[in-house]
Design a protein that fits this description.
The structure is a single chain. Helices cover 41% and strands 12% of the residues. By secondary structure, the protein is an alpha/beta fold. The protein has 2 domains: 34-253 and 326-417, Glycosidases (TIM Barrel, Alpha-Beta Barrel), CATH 3.20.20.80; 267-322, no CATH class. A hairpin with a 7-residue loop joins strand 2 (55-57) and strand 3. Helix 6 (158-172) runs parallel beside helix 7 (195-211), helix 11 (284-296) packs antiparallel against helix 12 and helix 13 (327-344) packs parallel to helix 14 (370-387). The longest helix has 21 residues, at 303-323. The N and C termini lie far apart (45 Å).
């Protein structure tokens, strides 16, 4: 009979207890007025994609992954990185987890992957950080897609997805419950008021709760976890499943945050750049000139396709500059989340802005100017804090990151925009 690393740790703890050795106990969760455990307390966090993402998936018709299933050269946080995050002022991390490799694996490899995930969680806890584990279905994969897993409770792979969520919840329940949480789905693709999403979420949360009675779970609305999805979510049927947090993501206006993004479905985004924040910091003419210059550098796209994209960008940018978005634009959106909480009796500290950020200009992308990105991130962070919402910046690494993938140096301007302090190395 083989034992996982976690089973061995439990056995050692049991033996120590029998031998009379001191055993460290977990902190006791506070209780709500209804007698339910209180959810963990969060304040300032950062997402750690691609720690358990960027997979090495085999092409169709295969449905499995190489081993190990994650790209070997992807940036992942070291123990020192995690300690420095805590020193900077972060109190938690959100770990996005691609479920595909777990679901495609045999039992032995699935156990190994779960051990790897729990080791990462414990590593963060040891650095003084709380952890939200987020199961994040990958729409870029060819088989283990959101549609196949979480589009409805009748989706072909929903049952195995639900079992994975239950397994992760079971293992997290063995840790310090004042410092860990599980978010079973990232950005559900269903409509804001989707009955299918309501049923999927209720089923997942109920199943996890059966294995982890006191673990904090994170619920969200439909339509990609936007505020409109939260606004359409009725939390009343879920309150029996407390302790709960509720989450939304914020990237408005996308014309600013996703300028230069090559993965967006609208063709204009790949050429958008020099879109200012706030809008009054620039002009329509200057931004359109930058778009034309960017298009001129593209020698692979047809003239007709570029012309169509330019007209689309021109129309969208006119609306943007006419609207003159600035900090009040952000406050207006986040006030909707506040109003939802007040209407349903959900305290602001239980409403997590689980993602926000903007693409940066670097060796991979041509996007916003650094000064505009800094101002936007500061405005969103300060707005969230003014409403009492905890937040998690997207991302630690990559095109929306705040740490260099290679040198591990923090971006001082982003650290400042987030209200944090550069740690002493």
């Amino acid at each position: 009979m083989s034992f996982s690393r976690r089973q061995m740790l439990r056995a050692v703890a049991a033996l120590a207890s029998l031998a009379g050795a001191p055993v460290q106990t977990k902190p006791v969760q506070a209780k709500s007025p209804r007698g339910k455990p209180m959810p963990l307390s969060l304040r300032r966090g950062v997402n750690t994609w691609p720690w358990f993402s960027l997979t090495r998936e085999y092409p169709a018709p295969r449905t499995d992954y190489a081993w190990p299933p994650f790209e070997l050269d992807r940036p992942i946080p070291t123990s020192r990185d995690l300690v420095r995050l805590r020193q900077a002022g972060f109190d938690f991390i959100r770990i996005p987890v691609d479920p595909g490799p777990f679901l495609a694996a045999g039992e032995q490899d699935k156990t190994r992957l779960l051990d790897m995930l729990m080791s990462a969680v414990e590593q963060a806890l040891s650095a003084g950080l709380s952890v939200v584990v987020n199961i994040q279905p990958n729409g870029a994969t060819h088989y283990w897609t959101p549609a196949r897993m979480v589009s409805s409770t009748a989706a072909p792979k929903f049952a195995v997805y639900q079992n994975l969520a239950k397994d992760i919840g079971h293992q997290l329940a063995d840790l310090d419950l004042t410092r860990v949480a599980l978010e079973p789905v990232n950005e559900p693709p269903q409509a804001c008021d989707s009955v299918a999403w309501r049923d999927v979420q209720t089923s997942l949360l109920t199943t996890i709760r059966s294995e982890a009675p006191n673990l904090t779970l994170v619920a969200t609305g439909g339509c990609g976890s936007m505020i409109a999805g939260l606004d359409a979510l009725d939390p009343a049927p879920l309150l029996a499943l407390e302790p709960l947090l509720f989450t939304f993501h914020f990237y408005e206006p996308y014309l600013f945050t996703h300028q230069g993004a090559t993965w967006m479905s609208e063709p204009m985004y790949r050429w958008l750049n020099a879109v200012p924040w706030p809008a009054a910091a620039g002009s329509l003419e200057t931004t359109l000139a930058a778009v034309r210059a960017r298009m001129a550098q593209d020698l692979t796209t047809t003239t007709a396709a570029k012309h169509a994209a330019y007209q689309e960008a021109k129309d969208a940018l006119k609306v943007y500059f006419d609207a003159r978005p600035a900090r009040p634009f952000i406050d207006h959106y986040l006030a909707m989340a506040q109003a939802w909480g007040k209407h349903h009796g959900i305290a602001p500290a239980r409403i997590l802005m689980g993602e926000f950020g903007a693409l940066r200009t670097d060796k991979h992308f041509v996007a916003s100017a650094a000064s505009d990105r800094d101002r936007y991130i500061r405005d969103v962070r300060e707005s969230a804090e003014s409403f009492g919402f905890p937040w998690a910046f997207w991302d630690l690494f990559d095109g929306m990151g705040m740490m260099d993938d290679t040198t591990r140096a923090f971006d001082p301007a982003i650290i400042s925009a987030l209200g944090l302090t550069l740690p002493r190395d």
